[in-house]
Specification:
mainly alpha, 59 residues
Length: 59
Amino acid sequence: MALPPLSGHLTRENVHMGKTRREFTPEYKNEAVKLVIDTGRAVATVARDLGINEASLGR
């Protein structure tokens, strides 16, 4: 993928913003937290196993 040439300041038009932020339901978060509590595994371990960022469990 070719990037557009930069001419001075970065603008919304020439900066790739990346992926859209995923939203998780409260039920999904509760189940993830329950996994941490019930299994005794670390938050980071459960988050990695679920394929999410550990910060997602606290939002």
